[in-house]
Amino acid sequence: MNSHSLIRSAIVDLGSNSVRLVVFEGRERNPVIIFNEKATLRLGSGLDTTRRLNPKGVTLAEDVFKRFYAVATTMGADPFVVLATAAVRDALDGEEFIKKLNQWMPNVPVHILTGEQEADYAAAGVLCSIPNADGVVADIGGGSMELVQLSEKKRFNAQTLPLGVIRLTDRSERKLAKAKAIASKDLKTVEWLTEVKKKTLYLVGGAFRAMAQLYIEYTSYPLSIVHYFTLPYEEAKRMVEWTIEKSKGGVNNIPTFIHKRLNDLPYAATVLEQLLSRLKPTQIVFCAEGVREGWYMRNVVSENVRDQDPQEAAAMDICERLGRVKEFPLALMQWTGSLFKNEDMDMKRLRWNACLISDASYHDHPAYRKEQSYHRILCMAGMAFDHPTRAFLALTTAMRYEAGVDEPFLMPSRKILTHKQFEQAVVLGMAFRVAYTLSGNLPSLLLRTRLKVGKKKLTLYFSHHLDAVISDAVTRRLTRLGQSMGLETQLLPDHDDA
């Protein structure tokens, strides 16, 4: 068991629309969520008119916070904090509400975030899983929307606007045309947006995520994971138009968890429409990590852990938990190094992560191993991997466990990956199959053989001491690897072997 596995941290994100308790376990690079519960209070409803928190929400809050307190304290979470955002910081009775919180949750610090702090934590949350993010983060809540510029792993500009979905609904008197004018006017006050046109727009917040989930369902996208769901500019415009149009006539057959967001979606879409018009981003990327993860990374995780590559850290964790021989991935990385000519850094990184997770399904039942391994990697929890990376690693692992290239369950990888990426994943997975059969998961045995890719032939050289391990299974799997590369195969003693 990991020595950090029972170290827990709890964060209550108190927003204008909902309140959520998240409990993280460990102190790793990729936050592991072991508890996640949300309640809709809509504390910010009517705030723009009354300047006070929604009385119904305040009444409902007591039971919610008492439950959250019981859960987090029983789990032994430390630190345990409340992060309050727009509704509480803007309401005249915000401090009065905090006093009630202190009674319901004794000894739990309550931080009322300024708009700039909220933006800063949202940016840190995006960087948690997308460390090379370059563009603008838009984090929409119920009471406000934070805009942040990111470049070179740093935050340069930040601004908060009263464009949260609840507040915009109130300000516009539930008229979308008026909401559009308000959003356009507010965004014009953010002068630095002119400096970041044609970059990526990263979208954070429940209303944006609900919009993405609906569009995933509508387009039959093969992976129902909002985090890292990416759309080019023109497709993003179509999504906005579709969302606004569908909201006029009602939306049927939608996931249950989106029902409470339905009234907010047209206002979130209207804000996004104006962001697209102003920024004309090359693409939009939905991000499920925001203020909570940002606070966790800034206040809980050590700096040396923060500096780790999130994808490598996630793959390394899978290797340590599920792999049999921890040294084998490094040997496998060396052994497969000749397979891809002119390999760029992105492909090398993919290959290394694939090596790390290549033994992840050894403990599954052999009859189900190929499909089980595929879905384990494709749909794994956590935020480190974008969709093409998930599809590539899942396909590679399935091929290692003898999947056929035409198996129906591999369809998500066919739809997400380019033809070249699909072929590379197949080749790598088949190479893994040869390596594990040949070596029995022993690094020293594997590295006494080597692959050489020629113009017409793929050759497996082996030490003269290894004649006995060159079995029919090795020969057969090497032949299949060669066929996937369009090459003949041969096995030869390695005369260069010392």
TrEMBL record:
It holds the Pfam family Ppx-GppA. CDD domains: ASKHA_NBD_HpPPX-GppA-like. Residues 327-488 form the Exopolyphosphatase C-terminal domain. Keywords: Hydrolase. InterPro entries: ATPase_NBD, GppA/Ppx_hydrolase, Ppx_C, Ppx_GppA_N. Residues 22-299 form the Ppx/GppA phosphatase N-terminal domain. GO terms for molecular function: hydrolase activity. Gene3D superfamilies: 3.30.420.40, Exopolyphosphatase. Domain 2, Hypothetical protein af1432. It comes from the Bacteria. Its EC number is 3.6.1.-. It is an enzyme of class 3 (hydrolase). PANTHER family: EXOPOLYPHOSPHATASE, RETROGRADE REGULATION PROTEIN 2. This is Ppx/GppA family phosphatase. It comes from Commensalibacter oyaizuii.
